[in-house]
Design goal:
CATH architecture of the largest domain: 3-Layer(aba) Sandwich
Strand content: 5-15%
Keywords: Membrane, Oxidoreductase, Transmembrane, Transmembrane helix
Helix content: 40-55%
Mean pLDDT: 82
Number of helices: 15
Protein name: Retinol dehydrogenase 14
Largest sheet: 8 strands, mixed
Pfam families: adh_short
InterPro entries: NAD(P)-bd_dom_sf, SDR_fam
CATH class of the largest domain: Alpha Beta
Number of domains: 2
Organism: Diploptera punctata
CATH superfamily of the largest domain: NAD(P)-binding Rossmann-like Domain
Number of strands: 8
Distance between the termini: 108 Å
Strand order of the largest sheet: 3-2-1-4-5-6-7-8
């Protein structure tokens, strides 16, 4: 049909294109096709018919004119876009899984393993926090090698279960459980007095116990912030109270389980006991203090026959994450189970420092995956170590009659 006739009829009857075509008996298919063509031409600046359309015919009429065809086209386009989006998301998911599996494989291949097969018969080892996680696996392996193992734990019930399990799996019955709560200065003194009274030699002291609280600041019965009290001040006092026994047993070793998370923190010497601090951050601070303490302790014990080394066990799937509340624990659990070390893997560097002949006489170092690892310059500052030492002595209430290092 000539274009001018459409114009003329529109102008004369004032009807929509749809009405015109409907009354003319055209098929629905042709109506939509021509309507689309007309609208396309109407929107073109070169289509002269626009000059002849009456002013009363607005763009909305044109939209109604082709509503049938545009809805169908939009529906088809939306389906195609949706399918493309799904394909993109699926591809991203597959790529992500491949990358994660590659990362897991890389982590597995680069794990440090303790290759030492040194016998520990005749040796006595104290391990704090040995009722779970890497402490438990460290105790199991040392018992397997014949050592007398003392499980220094706060939860005696759980520790007794671990003791029986270790005896059953290793055949070594020289496994003892003793009460030790590193957040309590009284408990530490009672434990040390018991050890000094009943144990004649101490070859290895492993500071393994640690705690982390993500929410809610807590203070110990001694007025110490709980995380700092358990992770730093407790081991500091215990080391002092057992140092004479360690010196008499030389060559002996002190192994401190730290963390690479120390790199995220710093020490505020004006507030070394931050009872109002952010709990999650204080865990990093406590590990910073562990590292500084290990270096200063090594300097003070130089030439005594007692070596001191600190280590990062890796990110471990252990009980320390149980304090994370729901629902944050759900994604964390997936990450932990997928990519963190098992307690057996996490215990390898501790075992290496406790048993290997390769580190005989090595002191004041930091290890990761059974290899010596560099430290940040801040923690190596002797002035910082000395000041932390002096402040810690005051906060743990060292008495004149206590052993001093």
């Amino acid at each position: 049909m000539p274009i001018f006739s459409i114009e003329k009829n529109l102008d004369r009857r004032g009807t929509s294109g749809y009405e015109y075509q409907r009354t003319g008996g055209r098929s629905m298919h042709r109506q939509r096709g021509m309507a689309a063509a007309v609208l396309m031409m109407m929107m073109s600046s070169n289509f002269l018919v626009c000059k002849h359309l009456p002013s009363s015919l607005s763009l909305s009429a044109g939209l109604v004119f082709v509503s049938g065809c545009t809805c169908e086209a939009a529906f088809i386009v939306s389906i195609k876009c949706g399918m493309c989006l799904l394909l993109i998301l699926f591809g991203a998911l597959i790529l992500g899984l491949i990358l994660l599996l590659g990362l897991k494989l890389f982590c597995q291949l680069t794990l440090g393993m303790c290759r030492s097969t040194t016998s520990m018969k005749g040796k006595t080892v104290i391990i704090s926090g040995a009722n779970s996680g890497i402490g438990k696996e460290t105790a199991r392996e040392l018992a397997k090698r014949g050592a007398k193992v003392i499980l220094a734990c706060r939860n005696i019930t759980e520790a007794d279960k671990v003791k029986n399990e270790i005896i059953e799996t290793t055949g070594n019955e020289d496994v003892l459980v003793k009460k030790l709560d590193l957040s309590s200065l009284k408990s530490i003194r009672e434990f040390a007095a018991d050890i000094n009274r009943t144990v004649t030699k101490l070859d290895v002291l492993i500071h393994n116990a640690g705690t982390a609280h993500m929410f809610g600041s807590k203070v110990t019965e001694d007025g110490l912030e709980l995380t700092m009290g358990t992770n730093h001040f407790g081991p500091f006092l215990l080391t002092h109270l057992l140092i004479d026994l360690l010196k008499r047993s030389a060559p002996s070793r002190i192994v401190i389980v730290g963390s690479e998370l120390y790199r995220l923190a710093s020490l505020n010497l004006n507030n070394i006991n931050p009872v109002n601090g952010f709990p999650a951050y204080l865990y990093y601070v406590s590990k910073y203090a562990n590292t500084v303490f290990s270096l200063e302790l090594a300097r003070k014990l130089e030439g005594s026959g007692v070596t001191v080394n600190c280590l990062h066990p890796g990110m471990i799937d252990s009980g320390i994450w149980r304090n994370v509340p729901f629902p944050l624990n759900l994604p964390l659990k997936l990450i932990v189970k997928g990519f963190f070390k098992t307690p057996v893997q996490g215990a390898q560097t501790t075992l290496y420092l406790a048993t290997s002949e390769e580190v005989e006489g090595v002191t004041g170092k930091y290890f990761l995956d059974c290899r010596e690892h560099g430290l940040s310059s801040g923690v190596q500052d002797p002035a910082l170590g000395k000041k932390l030492w002096e402040l810690s002595e005051k906060l743990v209430k060292l008495e004149p009659t206590d052993p001093h290092i």
